[in-house]
Design goal:
Blueprint: E1 2-9, E2 41-48, E3 56-60, H1 64-71, H2 82-88, H3 98-112, H4 114-119, E4 123-127, E5 132-136, E6 142-146, E7 150-157, H5 169-177
Antiparallel strand pairs: 1-7, 2-5, 2-7, 3-4, 3-6
Amino acid sequence: MRYGLTSFRPVETRGRETSRKKDDRRLHIDAFASRPNQGLRILRVFSNINPRGESRVWEIGEPFDAMARRFARRVPTQWPGSAWLLESLQVTKGRRSAYDHIMLNLHDTAKLDDDYQRATGRTRCEFPAHSTWIVFTDRVMHAALAGQFLLEQTFYLPVAAMRDASRAPLRILEDIYQRRLA
């Protein structure tokens, strides 16, 4: 496992103005435009440290497999040479694989599809103050609806280290696209 970024989120999620693509109140999986991960799993540890005792409120959406199959045909083809160019211009911190391209497009497509955001089923989850939870955010469709004062630690896990690698988004997408992606 490899350490990723550590962050502190002191701003209230509810009511924050942002673009639809950056709005974490919309269901999404995690994929990072500037930090390609070449198929590594994104494991995040969240701690609600709200000093006023307020919960962090999430919604969990449909299974990754269903979302990926729903949007797979809407992912544009990655332009030849684009990964090299983005890396060379230091737009990305590393080479964007076909997997990274697909995941980023699935992230954006789900967030930007208003019909999907309205119609897809969800389960509400409240994480009380002083609680900690762990999520593979590259596979769990999630939306952060409310909460303030959150600590977050990201880890990257190789697919080969998983007990059941077939459950990794990389393997699911390789099955959908019928080719190697990273």
